[in-house]
Amino acid sequence: MAAVSARGGTLTDTREFLLSAREARVETERLAERLALLQSRAERVTSTAGPGGAGRGQGPEALWAKLADERRRFIRQLELAQAQEAAVEQLIRAIRPARVRILMRLHWLDGFSVREASQRLGFSYSYGRRLSSQGLLEAERLLREKSE
After folding, report:
1. Residue 17 contacts residue 6 (beta carbons within 8 Å)
2. How many domains, the chain?
3. 144 and 8 in contact (C-beta within 8 Å)?
4. How far apart are CA 106 and CA 95, in angstroms?
5. pTM
6. Is residue 4 domain-resident?
């Protein structure tokens, strides 16, 4: 996943930037599952393989090499995801007032719908939607200022 830059522009750009942190989290979780599967498979093959391995190209050495490659890929993805999440968090931290910032964090970083975030904060859905729109416009303004 390529990092999405904090560019100013349209609301679509702003939404894309805010969603990028959640996408990075999802990709990281997917890679963690893949890494665990490869680890389990490599351990299973290592413990059951006799001399010569478990089959053409699938011996313990091949699986351990694949696991090492996947681990390096996972670490790179994790670093990208953390950087992207930090960039989105920095943007959200600059949004005022606090209730808008908290709703934005719940929605864009934690993955709650606006309705769910509003309920968690004790707001009506219509008030939460207004806050969300206000936050999105503020985020767009901040991104535009940063890119100038």
Report:
1. yes
2. 1
3. yes
4. 13
5. 0.73
6. no
| Alpha carbon distance 87, 108 (integer Å) | 12
pLDDT tens-digit map of 78-131: 888 889 989 999 999 999 999 999 999 999 999 999 999 999 999 999 999 999
Specify if 6 maps to a domain: no
Report d(CA 120, CA 116) in Å as an integer.
6
Q: How far apart are CA 137 and CA 104, in angstroms?
A: 11
Question: Which tens digits make up the pLDDT trace of 22-40?
Answer: 888 888 888 888 888 878 8
Q: Does residue 82 belong to any structural domain of this protein?
A: yes
DSSP 53: -
Question: Closest by alpha carbon to 84, among 23, 140, 127, 13?
Answer: 23
